[in-house]
Write a structure and sequence with these properties.
The structure holds two protein chains of two kinds.
Chain A: E1 4-7, E2 10-13, E3 19-25, E4 31-38, E5 42-51, E6 54-57, E7 64-66, E8 76-78, E9 87-94, E10 106-107, E11 111-115
Parallel strand pairs in A: 2-11
Antiparallel strand pairs in A: 1-3, 3-8, 4-5, 4-9, 5-6, 7-8, 9-10, 9-11
Chain B: E1 5-7, E2 10-14, E3 19-24, E4 31-37, E5 44-49, E6 55-58, E7 61-65, E8 71-76, E9 85-92, E10 101-102, E11 106-111
Classes of the chains: A mainly beta, B mainly beta.
Chain lengths: 116, 112
Amino acid sequence: DAGITQSPRYKITETGRQVTLMCHQTWSHSYMFWYRQDLGHGLRLIYYSAAADITDKGEVPDGYVVSRSKTENFPLTLESATRSQTSVYFCASSPPRTGSSGNTIYFGEGSWLTVV
Amino acid sequence: TQLLEQSPQFLSIQEGENLTVYCNSSSVFSSLQWYRQEPGEGPVLLVTVVTGGEVKKLKRLTFQFGDARKDSSLHITAAQPGDTGLYLCAGANAGNNRKLIWGLGTSLAVNP
């Protein structure tokens, strides 16, 4: 049961470079998310997707691009990395139905990105 | 803007002690979740509470949803070093329950 995997786990890049963080899930969950986690700000939603070819902005989308051509993949691209995008990035997924117990979000292990 | 305030931010206790973590808001949520995050890993769901006044137990952890569905608490009895981690609460709205409102977390250290 591979679950949800992110790559790379650790990345150092230079300001201005394009960086893509990959996310792959094996559960066929319809919903996928990208969060960043920073001290003092907690988890903030960057983008999310309800299904293939459907994406929507979260709380902090500026400087990021996402795509979802296949249900299982949800890559996040930083078009021109800035130091303020140094963070831990978490990909997550959630099944389509919400029962009375609410919806569970399953997180990947995170991608540590440093922009120098 | 909806906010979830967690308190305390940091907690360091000895093994065997009891503790309570709070998650408060001025807004009503349709459900509230508690996650635990260990260093170097993503958050993992512990419980979801949906009904006002609901109490759920998970071994030594007791979760309660406020009657008005604006607040929640997590009580740990006889804490163990394995309970160490970041505890996060997250609220969901009926309108869009995929865009959770997250608290900043409570960092718990249980010392042996």
